[in-house]
Amino acid sequence: MYKNFNDLEENLTRQELGIMIEKAREKKHDDQRFLAALKGIDLDEGNESEFDKIKARAEAKALGVSEEEYELSGHFNIIEEDE
Predict the structure, then answer these.
(1) E strand intervals along 1-83
(2) 46-65: b or e for each residue (b if 16 or more CB lie within 10 Å)?
(3) Burial of residue 73 (number of CB atoms within 10 Å: 0-12, 13-18, 19+)
(4) Is the dihedral of CA 9, 13, 14, 19 positive or negative?
(5) What integer pLDDT is reported at residue 75 of this predicted model?
(6) Can you tell me whether residue 59 is helix, strand or coil?
(7) In whole angstroms, how far apart are CA 63 and each of 20, 67, 74?
(8) Dist. CA 22–CA 32, nearest whole Å
């Protein structure tokens, strides 16, 4: 597709550049995670993204329940029985 590296650098599309940046960031994160693991640190342990927290808060508010009730509803099925 490209003649040489100079041709590649001059003709990168925005999408290709975005993919390259994303992969470079993933590699750096993997390297950091590996080095942390050598020291006995798990970087991924308990890391819930801020977006997930905000999303859960919004869903709880939309359902009219507290965040704790919303979180527990994902773990338990509550069945109301008629008397």
Answers:
(1) none
(2) eeeeeeeeeeeeeebeeeee
(3) middle
(4) negative
(5) 55
(6) helix
(7) 41, 10, 13
(8) 15
What does DSSP assign to residue 4? S
Cα–Cα distance for residue pair 48/33, rounded to 1 Å: 16
pLDDT digits (tens, 9 = 90+) for 16-65: 888 989 999 999 999 998 998 898 887 777 666 777 778 888 888 888 88
Q: How many residues does the chain have?
A: 83
Tokens 């470079």 belong to 24
Place of tokens 């960031």: 25
Structure tokens at 30: 């993997």
Tell me, what amino acid is at 81?
E
